[in-house]
Design a protein that fits this description.
The protein contains three helices and five strands, in the order H-H-H-E-E-E-E-E. By secondary structure, it is α+β, with helices and mostly antiparallel strands. Strands 1, 2, 3, 4 and 5 form a five-stranded antiparallel β-sheet that branches. It is globular, with a radius of gyration of 19 Å.
């Protein structure tokens, strides 16, 4: 709901003008709205159940860990260990979710791997679309 109010405010709709849907009055308002929308996590706009998204995130991370030699040789970026809603993913709209994330050798501060993994949240099939050096 906070997102809706944020957009209403950004788009120049005051509480008295929401019903009449007054359009933006300036290009600056549009530019600012677009700038903020680009920064909003996709998770706020997804239809994937939060529990399914968390499971999918874990499966994607584990697939990359396996592809890269296990935990003794690879660590995914922190976003793949935290909240699923803040992980780097795209809801494909067909029941699948694609995660694109980086990883490194344990102890290294620079990422050296990129992984793109798609998880079907209906069948739980896992597809490693790409796993290799950062492109």
């Amino acid at each position: 709901m906070k997102l809706l109010y944020l957009l209403i405010g950004l788009l120049g709709f005051g509480s008295a003008t929401i019903a009449s849907a007054t359009p933006l009055s300036t290009q600056a308002n549009w530019a600012r709205a677009i700038e903020i929308m680009e920064g909003i996590q996709v998770a706020q706009l997804t239809s994937v159940d939060p529990d399914d998204l968390n499971r999918a995130k874990n499966l994607a991370r584990q697939a990359a860990e396996t592809e890269n030699g296990g935990l003794s040789q690879y660590r995914a970026e922190p976003a793949m260990h935290g909240s699923a809603a803040e992980s780097p993913y795209v809801d494909n709209g067909d029941g699948s979710v694609t995660f694109t994330f980086f990883g490194s050798i344990p102890g290294e501060e620079v990422y050296s791997y990129e992984s793109i993994v798609t998880i079907d949240t209906v069948t739980w099939d896992i597809v490693v679309n790409y796993n290799g050096t950062i492109r």
